Amino acid sequence: MQTYPRWQLSRLIVALCLLTLLVPITRGLAATLQCENLRCEYLKDPLGLDETRPRLSWIVTSIERDENQTAYQILVATTEAKLRAGQGDLWDTGKLASDETTQIVYGGQPLTSRERCFWKVRSWDRDGKEGKWSAPAQWQMGLLGPGEWSARWISATNPANPGESAGVPYLHKAFALPSTIQRAVLYVSALGLYEVHLNGQRVGDHVLAPDWTDYRKRVRYQAYDVTALLKRGDNAIGALLANGWYSGHIGNGGYQIFGKVPAFLAQLEVTYKDGRTERVVTDGSWKFQASPIISSDFMAGEDYDARMEVKHWDEPGLDDRKWSAVTTREESVPLEAQVMEPVREIVELSPKAVTQPTPGNWVYDLGQNMVGVVRLKVSAPAGTKVTLRHAEMLNPDGTLYTKNLRKAPSVDHYVTRGGGVEIWQPQFTFHGFRYVEISGLPKPPGKDAVTGVVISSDTTRTGEFTCSDPRINQLQSNIQWGQRGNYISVPTDCPQRDERLGWMGDAQVFIRTATYNADVAAFFTKWLVDVDDGQSAAGAFSDVNPNTMGRGGVPAWGDAGVICPWTIYQAYGDKRILERHLPAMIKWVEYLREHSDGLIRDRDRGNDYGDWLAIGSDTSKELIGTAYFAYSTHLVTQACQALGRTEDAAKYGLLFQDIRAAFVKKYVASDGRIQGNTQCDYAMALKFDLLPDELKPKAAQYLEDDIVAKGEHLSTGFVGVSYLLPVLTQNGKADTAYRLLLQDTFPSWLFSVKQGATTIWERWDGWTPDKGFQDPQMNSFNHYSLGSCGEYLFGGIGGIRAGSPGFKDIIIDTVIRDGLTWANAQFDSIHGEIATSWKRDGRKLTLKVVVPANTTASVVIPAANPAAIAESGKPTDRARGVLFLRQEADGCVFRVGSGTYSFSAAMD
Ligand code: BGC
Q1: What is the pLDDT of residue 369?
Q2: Ligand 1 proximity of 506 Cβ (cutoff 6 Å)
Q3: Segment 438-448, tens digit of pLDDT
Q4: How far is the CA of 437 from the centre of ligand 1 (A)?
Q5: pLDDT at residue 248 is higher than 50
Q6: What share of the chain in percent tops pLDDT 70?
Q7: Which residue, 109, 149, 137, is CA-closest to 47?
Q8: Active site residues
Q9: How far is Cα 472 from Cα 889, in angstroms, rounded to an integer?
Q10: How far is the CA of 207 from the centre of ligand 1 (A)?
């Protein structure tokens, strides 16, 4: 049954309410533009910013069609009261003629450390009518330089050996605040992972803070408003400190890559009502003691002995006389503010089934391959050791299949304190799993013994896609779960085995899909700094970032350093990301030029991965290298153009032409055949614009021929797969794109869906009925790369594409073919909600479109005769906000302004 799209329902309700309100009011009286969703550096009310010229954005909403902002006014004030009174003492733009609502660079008084900035905005509509002020928003500056920190790094070290960590300690410090508190902010960081508490309560909801960076180059800090957690009189601060990425096991054998002993840093800044200030900082006066966390490691898991819990460890009044003194140490690593959404617990899952495949071992099925931890609820005599093992799949006998975890045991242990129900979850590890096995209990655990606690970098969900084929809906769900589980502080390859690294190739093939599913602008703003940090002096981008493997220069992997900033610019109109990364992007292209012969990448391709995990085809690695050299050069050219750097644009434009010529000369025959004749060849050559115009239809034909020859199957790996469907469609082969997408025999996207997958598999043949599991050395069941077809669900079938960076101009060009009868796509762009909903009944087509205020869209209706197309039941020339533009091969193109439209037509 067709589900009613969320946006249609909510729109209907809003429209009905507004209609009731507006009946007695003429349009002339209604203020039509409302500013909402105010954000600063992509974040809602961020606390602790280093950006001294932060960018502001909002969306405008209206009940009118074809509505635009013609001017805006921003006020930024030092206090809420001033803002309320309309005094923008930090910045008052006045009424500024502009249709921009995004990436507005703050241009007021210079901002200093700790500055609080309260802001609001209003807009003028197309008739020059003034809208109401938005609800207030705010941001607060962080600590803008090393001089602002008086805290010292502290560690818990073995008294006998100060170079050795004393495990996962409790840290503690009691302090008095003699006066009434006005406001308090806590600035915290760690080389390792921390959880910080004040007066018995956990501060904030971040998980795995302070996030992963190359700790040799920079470490992030967080700021928390802790006013409500403090009181006049006696207070205490406590923390737990663990190894995490800094000094624990990370992927591919990495151990203690950044350091041996974790360190903690905290600076509590209190402002009293009388204006005086006070600081409580980490220093040599802090004490530590072993915590119940016996050990914690990403790969190994976490061991916890509840009998070792110390009551009131994070409260004043603790008797810490027997606790040890911390050691302090100097660190020169720069502290930088958090710039993205933190990792958080985002959802909880209850078990779908419990079995007991072997005596005393209970296996819980959470029904979804997920990333996070188990919250355990048990009741057992004191000292009972409960073991939790995790797995993505089961063996045929119902026991856990853990071989593919390689050297990541992923086992948690909990030793009970006894005396009733106990609830526990690990704090400083995470696992990728669907199944969890509990053992060690004297009695069978209840079904509620296990809750799956899902963690992810908490990027806001922005996209929904559903259609008439439930298998595709499951595929979309698998893609989203893959993104959720692998965006853990950095974009990783997989979350379960001993890898979990920021693999560049995976990140770049998936990023276009990612930008539809969630707002990943801030996430990539942070990670792209890690990417530049990992670039070699010669210009080679490394394979993984943070760069823990120390190797790079690989085609399609290194190119992520160019493709990702470019994609973020396209998706969010973010020119700053281009500006900041252009030097590194250029350096990469120059590296490629340097490491080529006659512009052919015939050498120095690092640990070349080719079209990784392709099936039934072998694309030349040299050819892939040359194609990507051209592509990165082309993107650098366009980036230079976007930034107004015309000389560089001309220079790299010429280089692109030359690489293209070298590519054609070396790999393309006069009849358009590309060396190797693989699907990946043609997909890249068409996507990267490497062919002369006359050869493009031929290349598309060869691509289609190969798919047909393989029985409507793909044969691409990570690289080629991301371009197949868009390229086929843009080159007149949409029918084939549909057949490929809807294929469910091996290899195909729906093959794994048919096997019951709930996430995207690393390999097309991760498990097959005839062969069982693939090689466990390389067989993740939660790898998003092959899910890069998600882009096509939104941009192809749903037809939502950016006509200009940031979706200020929108293209609505749905691809409707046999196999689907309806599809709904909804995408919250940086300019507001865009949605399409089409339904096909024989030749009759209805297409509903939502276009946000202050944007325009070109809508392609797949029908030849404009006169046979209606909008809301009327001929289109009588429909408000609709303008017929032209007839194209695919149908009629209309320009529409903002609003909700309902087109109907007879399809050709
Ligand atoms: C990872 C991939 C990665 C690849 C390089 C693997 O071990 O899991 O996703 O891109 O190595 O080929």
Answers
A1: 98
A2: yes
A3: 999 999 999 99
A4: 28
A5: yes
A6: 97
A7: 137
A8: 499, 762
A9: 28
A10: 26
Question: Mutation test of ligand 1: which of 405, 406, 493 has the most ligand atoms closer than 8 Å to its C-beta?
Answer: 493
Give Cα separations from 651 to 352, 586, 665 (angstroms): 59, 11, 21
- Determine which residue's CA is closest to atom 1 belonging to ligand 1: 493
Residue 613 CA, closest ligand 1 atom number: 12
> 134 C-alpha vs ligand 1 centroid, how far in Å?
46
Q: For residue 313, what are the contacts with CB-CB under 8 A and spacing of at least 6?
A: 170, 172, 238, 289, 291
CA of 859 to the centre of ligand 1 (A): 39
CA 892: distance to chain centroid? 36
Give the pLDDT confidence of 678-716 residue by residue, as tens digits: 999 999 999 999 999 999 999 999 999 999 999 999 999
Report, as an integer, the average pLDDT of 461-465.
Answer: 98
Per-residue pLDDT, 27:
38
Distance 493 CA to ligand 1 centre (A): 7
Burial of 354 per CB tally in 10 Å (0-12, 13-18, 19+)? middle
Note the pLDDT tens digit of each residue in 798-821.
999 999 999 999 999 999 999 999
Residue 19 in this model has a pLDDT that exceeds 90: no
Question: H or E segment at 504?
Answer: helix 504-517
* Mean pLDDT of all residues belonging to the chain: 95
Measure the CA–CA gap between 888 and 862, rounded to whole angstroms. 9
Residue position matching structure tokens 């084929």: 469
Contact status, residue 392 vs residue 494, Cβ threshold 8 Å? no
Which residue out of 250, 497, 499, 509 has the highest number of ligand 1 atoms within 8 Å of its CB and is therefore the one to mutate? Answer: 499
Q: What is the pLDDT of residue 142?
A: 98
Probe target for ligand 1 pocket from 541, 609, 778, with the most ligand atoms within 8 Å of CB: 609
530 Cβ inside 6 Å of ligand 1: no
Atom of ligand 1 nearest to the CA of 505: 10
Atom of ligand 1 nearest to the CA of 785: 9
Token reading at 414: 């909990």
609 lines ligand 1 (CB under 6 A): yes
What is the residue with the minimal CA distance to atom 12 of ligand 1? 609
Q: How far apart are CA 740 and CA 472, in angstroms?
A: 12
The span from the CA of 247 to the CA of 191, in Å, is 8
Task: Pick the atom of ligand 1 nearest to 557's CA.
Answer: 10
CA of 778 to the centre of ligand 1 (A): 9
pLDDT number for residue 15: 46
Rounded CA-CA distance 800/857 in Å is: 10
Whether residue 146 is preceded by a cis peptide bond, meaning omega within 30 degrees of 0, is: no
Give the Cα-Cα-Cα angle 363, 366, 371 (nearest 5 degrees): 110
The model's pLDDT over 617-671, given as tens digits with 9 standing for 90+, comes to: 999 999 999 999 999 999 999 999 999 999 999 999 999 999 999 999 999 999 9
Tell me the C-alpha distance between 210 and 255, whole Å.
Answer: 19
15-22: list long-range contacts, CB under 8 Å, 24+ apart.
15/63, 18/63, 22/63
Sort strands 219-225 and 335-337 into parallel, antiparallel or unpaired.
Answer: parallel
For the stretch 200-219, pLDDT in tens is 999 999 999 999 999 999 99
DSSP SS3 for 486: helix
- pLDDT reported for residue 907: 85
Confidence at residue 12, expressed as pLDDT on a 0 to 100 scale: 45
Q: Which residues contact 181 (CB under 8 A, 6 or more apart)?
A: 227, 230, 231, 232, 270, 271, 272, 273
Can you give the pTM of this predicted structure?
A: 0.95
* Rounded distance between C-alpha atoms, residue 688 and residue 629, angstroms: 10
- The average pLDDT across 427-435 equals 98
